[in-house]
Design a protein that fits this description.
It is built from ten helices and eight strands. By secondary structure, the chain is of the alpha/beta class.
Length: 299
C-alpha cells in the first residue's frame, strides 16, 4: 500500500449541507484513505473554524491551505496584488495576506489539539506582470518570520504568462519558479490542469514534474482536470477542476495521463492528491466515487 500522504481538494466537490459535508469527509477518509484536505483561504479559513478543526482532528493531519481563491479575488479586483508584484503596495498586501494564512494554520492546529496543517500553497501572482525578483523578496521575508513548527510554504505552479494562449492565472514560468525554489529551499507542486492550460498541452504536466524532480524541488502533484472543449462545467481550457475523463468526456485527464505523471515523479512526491468539481445534484456517494477514479492510482 502506498503510504504517501493523500490530499483531497474537497472544497471543489463539497456538497451544500453541513450534514452532507460531514458525511463526505467521513467517506474521503474511510473509503479513499485521504490523510489531508486542501482548504481554500479567501478572507478567512472558514465561517466556523472550530467545526473545521473538529473535522480535521485525528484524521486529516496532512492538510494544506491554498491561497489561490483569495489571491485571484484580489488580482481580479486591482491587478497588482501578488507575492511577485512589481507594485510595492500590491506585494505588501500579498505578504500580509499570506501571514494571515499562516496565523490561521496555527489557530487550526491549536483548535485541533495537534498538527493538522502541513503546508500552504502559495503562488507567483499577479497575472502578466509577475516579477521573479519580487517573488524571491517576498518569500525571503515570509520565511524569516516563520517558526520551525509552522506549515511549509509550497509554490503551486499555475499557468505561466503565454501570449500564444488566453490562459487564466498567467504567472511566472516553471524555470523561474525552480530557480527561486532552489534559492529558498521551498518545494514546487504541479496542478495537472493548470500546467496543461499554459500551452494547451496535456503532456506538459508530466514534463513539469520531470523538470522538478531533476532539479530536486518537486513537492507534490494535484490531479485536477482540464479540457480542450466546452463541457458540463464551462468553457474549454478554463481552470474548472474537471473530473477524470470517465466522468467528464471533455476532460483530457485520463488514466494514461495520471500514470505518466506518477511515472515521471518516480515516487519523489511528498504528497499527491485530487481536486475536482462534481455536478451540483450529485449525492455524497457519487462525489466520492468520482474522486476515487483518480485516487485508485494513488493508494
Amino acid at each position: 500500500m502506498n503510504t504517501t500522504p493523500l490530499v483531497i481538494g474537497a472544497y471543489a466537490a463539497l456538497p451544500a449541507t453541513r450534514a452532507d459535508q460531514e458525511a463526505f469527509y467521513d467517506r474521503l477518509h474511510a473509503d479513499l484513505g485521504a490523510t489531508g484536505l486542501e482548504l481554500p483561504f479567501r478572507d478567512s479559513i472558514h465561517d466556523d473554524p472550530t467545526w473545521l478543526a473538529g473535522q480535521l482532528a485525528g484524521r486529516f493531519t496532512d492538510s494544506i491551505i491554498t491561497a489561490i481563491p483569495g489571491t485571484m479575488m484580489r488580482v481580479w479586483d486591482g491587478g497588482t496584488f501578488g507575492l511577485a508584484s512589481p507594485d510595492e503596495d500590491g506585494r505588501n498586501a500579498a505578504t500580509a495576506f499570506t501571514r494571515a494564512i499562516i496565523d490561521s494554520a496555527r489557530a487550526l492546529d491549536d483548535a485541533a489539539g495537534h498538527r493538522v496543517i502541513a503546508g500552504i500553497h502559495i503562488h507567483s501572482a499577479p497575472s502578466v506582470t509577475a516579477n521573479r525578483d519580487q517573488f524571491l523578496r517576498s518569500l525571503t521575508e515570509l520565511l524569516e518570520g516563520m517558526d520551525d513548527d509552522d506549515p511549509h510554504l509550497i509554490i503551486e505552479h499555475c499557468d505561466r504568462y503565454n501570449e500564444a494562449v488566453t490562459g487564466e492565472k498567467r504567472f511566472l514560468n516553471i524555470e523561474q519558479e525552480i530557480a527561486i525554489a532552489k534559492e529558498t529551499g521551498i518545494g514546487i507542486t504541479v496542478n495537472w490542469g493548470r500546467s496543461a492550460m499554459e500551452a494547451y498541452d496535456p503532456q506538459l504536466p508530466a514534463q513539469h514534474i520531470q523538470a522538478l524532480v531533476a532539479e530536486g524541488v518537486f513537492e507534490g502533484v494535484m490531479f485536477s482536470g482540464a479540457g480542450d472543449k466546452e463541457n458540463t462545467f464551462g468553457a474549454a481550457w478554463a481552470d474548472l477542476h474537471l473530473p477524470h475523463h470517465m466522468d467528464e468526456p471533455a476532460s483530457l485527464m485520463d488514466d494514461g495521463r495520471i500514470t505518466e505523471c506518477l511515472s515521471a515523479a518516480g515516487g519523489a512526491q511528498k504528497y499527491h492528491g485530487a481536486k475536482i468539481q462534481a455536478p451540483a445534484e450529485a449525492d455524497v456517494a457519487t462525489r466520492v466515487t468520482m474522486l476515487g477514479h483518480i485516487t485508485r492510482h494513488l493508494r
